[in-house]
Amino acid sequence: MSQNWLAGGVYGTVLSSALLAALQSEGTPYTPYYDAAWIVVTAGTAALAHAYAHHIAGYRPESGALRWRRLALTVADQWPVIIACMPTVLLLVLSGLAGWQEHGVTTAGLVLNTALLFGWGTFAAVRAGYARRSAALIGGADAAIGVLIAGANAVIK
Predict the structure, then answer these.
(1) Prediction pTM value
(2) What average pLDDT score do residues 18-41 get?
(3) What DSSP line would sit under 78-131, residue for residue?
(4) Average pLDDT, the chain
């Protein structure tokens, strides 16, 4: 598993958590499909922007065809950001189908994503050669990002 896959997983999970918290309706009708669509659109846009920034930063004098090929490969390499948003998107779609209440869905999504961040961090640390205890501490540090988002959501909303 590449470093990019792990980084994209963490980035996509953090992005979907922040969007889930920010899209909470606060007095307007709950729109889970709209929220899910915005998470996918934002993840796609972020992935494209990230790929383009890497492409421009790595500029080399070469043929136009080769530059376009490198750009396409760089864009394709960003798929983990979008895939990492899918648990949140799926939760929102299911909530729309089942008629679940927004507050519970937001809470469940933030808890799910915090657990995923713990998993991403722990898995990455184990792959890097850390002992299990140290890897769990690193996973806890990643999960702290999710806790911060949930805390900010509670304070702001």
Answers:
(1) 0.88
(2) 92
(3) THHHHHHHHHHHHHHHHHHHHT--HHHHHHHHHHHHHHHHHHHHHHHHHHTT--
(4) 90
Distances (CA, A) of 143 to 67, 128, 136: 38, 18, 10
Q: How far apart are the first and last CA of the chain?
A: 38
Residue 92's nearest CA partner among 35, 25, 21, 18 is 35
CA distance 157 to 153: 6
**CA 50/CA 137 separation, integer angstroms:** 29
Q: What letter would DSSP give residue 30?
A: P
Q: Are 94 and 115 in contact (CB under 8 A)?
A: no
How many Å apart are CA 91 and CA 77, to the nearest integer? Answer: 25
Alpha-carbon dihedral sign for residues 115, 116, 121, 127: positive
Which residue carries 């990643």 as its tokens?
A: 142
